[in-house]
Amino acid sequence: MMTQRPDPQAVATGLFDAWNNPARDARHSALSQVVSDRLVYLDPHQEDRSLGQAAYLALSDQFHEVMAGYTLELGPVDGHHNIIRFGSVLRDTNGAVFSKGQFFAVLDDQGRISLMAAFGA
Question: Domain for residue 92, yes or no?
């Protein structure tokens, strides 16, 4: 059981800061602090769900290969209990909005994301 509720803003900021890091090893290290080893990730752009931290790290690698220079910008964040939601804006290399979305996440007892569902274009 979580002794103290994690700050939703801190969790979401940690996730986005890690995701936007172009250096693979640093990104993996930072993401492993934010997402659970047993993460389940659901995304409308993926047919199957990603299972586990390793699969999510591989997804981050694929993103940086295919969309080099694109960045995720964190939108509004809120949460209650062990659930958080946060908006996102994906910007292209010129800073133009490529897409907008929203995420819902469940935190485990260590305050790491154990389930995350993405919504958006």
Answer: yes
pTM of the model: 0.91
Residues 6+ apart with CB under 8 A from 96: none
Per-residue pLDDT band at 121 (split at 50, 70, 90): low
| CATH number, domain containing residue 108 | 3.10.450.50
What percent of the chain has a predicted confidence (pLDDT) above 70? 97
Q: Which class for 39: exposed (0-12), middle (13-18), buried (19 or more C-beta within 10 A)?
A: buried
Residue 2 lies in a domain: no
How many structural domains is the chain composed of?
A: 1
The secondary structure of 21-84 as a DSSP string is: ---HHHHHHHHHHHEEEEEEEE-TT-SS-EESHHHHHHHHHHHHHHTTT-EEEEEEEEEETTEE
Residue 28 placed within a domain? yes
Structural domain span for residue 49: 8-120
In terms of pLDDT, which residue wins out, 23 or 121?
Answer: 23
